[in-house]
Amino acid sequence: MNEIIGIEITPPAVSDKIKSLIEAFLSGRNSLTIKAYRQDLESFSKFLKSHSAKDSVHSLLSLLPGDANALTLSYRSRMIEERLSPATINRRLASLRALVKLARTLGLITWKIEIQNIKSQSYRDLRGPEISKLKNVILELVQRNSPKTKRDLAIIRLLHDLGLRRGEVTSLDLAHIDLNLGTISILGKGKTERTNLTLPEETQWALRNWIEIRGNEPGALFINFDRAKKGKRLTGSGLYALSKYYGLGRPHGIRHLAITEALDKTGGDVRSVQRFSRHKNLAILNIYDDNRQDLGGSVAKIVAAGL
């Protein structure tokens, strides 16, 4: 029984329609998106103390509109109490709303989730590591000659030179690199088809040195060197640990640095940098540009000087 809204959350037998709904919800999406949605459904199931995602979805869709929204509000409140980041909370709520919307489209229900996201400041600090720190790390790696440092250099160059996301790096296979053409094929965020990007010469050099060590056998481009997972694909958490090890913070911070550098070197050409960063929303790049120039701080100095 849910203590907050007083409803039974142990669902009856799960129907084939619920199973088909979840399959339809996940179909046609790339592997990274499917993984994220599955994790979001598992989180909701844990909140309901259900045995499976199918049970929790069945339980939600069996409710009256008011009770369903009250349950979702309770879920949001619990996540806030657990001090989850706004980005995580809002992503989980968005997943739930999207699933319910599909159920409504398919005629399983007639209502929708009205509970909104919480305010997020996820783009407040977009600076990433200091450029001097990154240059020192790259110089250090170039001077070393071990298989691991060659791998790490290739990864860091991809994160910075092309502004790749963590998942875009870890999902790469050897087949996605064409050093003869100087291109790389990435699976972008929310995409189901790969996109070809041109590799700068410095990035090609780092990749070529790594591939000479790695070998030409098919499979993951970047593999693990840890004893327990040696030879297996480098995971997102492994990439995060790599970035932290070199004092560069989270991998996404390196992407932030790359985008800020791109804006600096193009004189704030937001449209061109949008092609580099592959952001759908131009407003996000405007936030980068504002932070880069500290426009608010510049105006504050003018205002203060008038007193």
Q: Could you characterize what this model shows?
A:
The chain has 307 residues and is mostly helical. It is built from 14 helices and three strands. The protein has helices spanning 16-26, 31-48, 53-61, 65-81, 86-105, 131-143, 147-161, 166-170, 201-214, 236-245, 251-265, 270-277, 282-293, 295-305, and strands spanning 177-178, 183-186, 195-198. Strand 2 (183-186) and strand 3 (195-198) form a beta hairpin. Helix 11 (251-265) runs antiparallel to helix 12 (270-277) and helix 11 (251-265) crosses helix 13. 29% of the residues are buried.
Structural class determined from secondary elements = mainly alpha
Strand content: under 5%
Determine the oligomeric state from the structure.
single chain
Radius of gyration computed on alpha carbons: 23 Å
**Helix content, binned percent:** 55-70%
Summarize it:
By secondary structure, the chain is mainly alpha-helical.
Structural descriptors:
307 residues, mainly alpha, three-stranded antiparallel beta sheet, 14 helices, 3 strands, globular
Secondary structure layout:
Layout: H1 16-26, H2 31-48, H3 53-61, H4 65-81, H5 86-105, H6 131-143, H7 147-161, H8 166-170, E1 177-178, E2 183-186, E3 195-198, H9 201-214, H10 236-245, H11 251-265, H12 270-277, H13 282-293, H14 295-305
Antiparallel strand pairs: 1-2, 2-3
